[in-house]
Specification:
The protein has a domain of 144 residues: Sufe protein. Chain: A, CATH 3.90.1010. 73% of the residues lie in helices and 7% in strands. The protein is built from six helices and two strands. The termini are far apart.
C-alpha cells in the first residue's frame, strides 16, 4: 500500500511539474510572439523610414535640379544682354535703342494696376510693378511712362519671370557692372534700375515667406 501511495504522489508531482512546464512554455511563446511583433513593427517602421528618406532624397534632387535650371536661365539671359551690349560697345545710341526695343515687347499692363500702390519708389520716371505666384514661380507685370525705363524694367521681367522666390533672392545680376550700364543710361536711371531689382526681391521675399507658411 505504501508503494502504491508513493507512486500516486510521484505521479501527482510529475503532473504538477508538467503543468508548470506547459505554463512556462506558454509564457515563453507569448514573449516570443511579442518580440516577433515588435521586430515586425520595427521592420515596417524602418521600411517606412527608408521610403520617406528615398522620397526626401528624390525631392531634394529634383529641387537642386530645378534650382540649377533656374540659375542657368538667369545666367543665360544675363549673358545674352551682356553680349548684346558688347556688340554695341562704344555706340551708346544703339545700346539705348536696343533697350527701348525690349520695352516694346513688354506685355501690356492693366490701366487699373498703374496705381500709386504699385509704383516703384526711387525711379526717375514712373514705374509700376505687380507680381503673382503661380506653381511656385513668380510672374511680374510692369510698365513705365518713358521708353528707356520701360526697356530697363522689361529686362528684369524677362530675367525673373517664372523663377522661384529663393532663386530670385540669390540671383546676382553681374552684367550690370560688367557692361558698365551706368555709362549708357546715366546715374539716376542706374539708381532707378537698382530700385526695380530691390522691388522684385521684396516680392520674392514675401512669396518665399508665404510658401514657408503653407
Amino acid at each position: 500500500m505504501e508503494n502504491e501511495q508513493r507512486i500516486v504522489e510521484l505521479l501527482a508531482e510529475t503532473l504538477i511539474k508538467f503543468d508548470q512546464m506547459i505554463d512556462e512554455q506558454k509564457q515563453t511563446n507569448q514573449r516570443l510572439e511579442k518580440v516577433e511583433h515588435i521586430s515586425s513593427s520595427m521592420e515596417h517602421s524602418l521600411i517606412s523610414m527608408d521610403n520617406r528618406l528615398e522620397k526626401l532624397e528624390k525631392g531634394m534632387s529634383k529641387l537642386n535640379l530645378q534650382t540649377a535650371e533656374n540659375s542657368r536661365a538667369i545666367f543665360k539671359l544675363s549673358n545674352e544682354i551682356e553680349n548684346i551690349a558688347h556688340l554695341h560697345e562704344g555706340d551708346m545710341e544703339m545700346t539705348v535703342f536696343y533697350i527701348m526695343e525690349l520695352g516694346q515687347k513688354l506685355a501690356e499692363m492693366k490701366v487699373a494696376d498703374k496705381s500709386e500702390v504699385n509704383e516703384v519708389k526711387g525711379c526717375q520716371s514712373k514705374v509700376w510693378m505687380t507680381a503673382h505666384l503661380e506653381n511656385d514661380g513668380v510672374y511680374f507685370q510692369a510698365d513705365s511712362n518713358t521708353a528707356i525705363t520701360k526697356g530697363l524694367v522689361s529686362i528684369l521681367v524677362r530675367i525673373f519671370n517664372g523663377q522661384r522666390p529663393e532663386d530670385i533672392l540669390n540671383a546676382d545680376l553681374y552684367f550690370m557692372k560688367k557692361i558698365g550700364m551706368e555709362r549708357f543710361i546715366g546715374t539716376q536711371r542706374s539708381n532707378g534700375f537698382g530700385a526695380m531689382i530691390k522691388q522684385i526681391k521684396l516680392y520674392a521675399l514675401a512669396f518665399k515667406t508665404q510658401l514657408a507658411a503653407n
